[in-house]
Amino acid sequence: MILYYFGLILVFFHLVTFLFYVALLIVIIYTAISEENFLRKKFPEYENYMKDTGRFLPKFSAK
User: pLDDT averaged over the chain?
Assistant: First the structure.
């Protein structure tokens, strides 16, 4: 969804489209942080999971 709207901005650049995209990003980031805080409280082992996992994209690390 994030990439879809970014593509729309590139194709149909308009101030309203850009502002909508920025608002969408703010909502998505806020929601992700809220969910992570909830999961940390409910599942203490979630903190360890977060160290190995990215918020939006997977982390690729050599172990």
Answer: 87
